[in-house]
Amino acid sequence: MKRTLLAVLGAISLSACAQAPDPDAAANGKAPMVANTVPAAPEPDAGTPEARAVAAVRTLSENLKPEHVGAAPMPGFREVIVSGQIVYVSDDGRYMFLPGQGGALYDTTTQTNLSEETFAHLRRDLLKTIPAGERIVFAPQDPKYTVTVFTDVECGYCRKLHSEIAEYNRQGIAIEYLAFPRMGLGSEDYKKMVSIWCASDRKQALTAAKSDKPVPSQDCKNTVNMQYNVGQRAGLTGTPMILTEDGVQVGGYVPPEALRQTLDKLAADRAARPSAPAGGA
């Protein structure tokens, strides 16, 4: 979860291909962000809310260098500018709020992304709306884990992931693909994905498309639109997007061995949680 928050701050990349830009952005005068060259702010005095705010931000990465620390517009919070983004931190240093797309409320004490926990439940329910028969599945005989991957046929990271599908399976991971044509509905990308989902052998068609091999153009009753809409509602901003069965986002592209390690850790963390009281939800 730290990885996702660091991506919001621009400190790392989630190794994903971006969704097509908003065509209205240029018309509305929205300019792309540029690298921030403002020098780091001086270290605040120890024991102050400002010092606790800086310490909270550095729970994500000790290499983060705040450029501004000061009072927030609402009482009980400090605002910190880091990597060109504003972060709000409670004066006791426990809670950190990252506003904007992909933002989150983070508990620095428990190292928990509170927003992700809520969003994971939503994603899990959204995934249930897509019939199992509409997924393109590459799985070992007895998978240890199953992940859902929103994919696009043109995205380089999607192609890299698919080129390693046998290794994911060797790691005990089943991959269930859903369509997310990142250039949007009606695009050439979208038409290719419709052709794949209309093919008699979807697995073969998907593999061919990701290898720049021709896929016969087809049209049929399909769920590509549904899958795309679910991806948007699930907070997808780039492909691939990897989700666990619990709806937790674990990437971007993640190499097979690293993904297995991540899934093992999530399973261990889940097993270590206290059991819900009898009669609880």
Automatic annotation (TrEMBL):
Signal peptide: 1-20
Matches recorded under Gene3D superfamilies: Disulphide bond isomerase, DsbC/G, N-terminal, Glutaredoxin
Keywords of the record: Disulfide bond, Periplasm, Redox-active center, Signal
Domain Thioredoxin-like fold: 142-263
Subcellular location: Periplasm
Disulphide bond isomerase DsbC/G N-terminal domain segment(s): 47-116
Single GO cellular component term: periplasmic space
Family statement drawn from the similarity comment of this UniProt entry: Belongs to the thioredoxin family. DsbC subfamily.
Function statement: Required for disulfide bond formation in some periplasmic proteins. Acts by transferring its disulfide bond to other proteins and is reduced in the process.
UniProt protein name: Thiol:disulfide interchange protein
Organism: Marilutibacter aestuarii
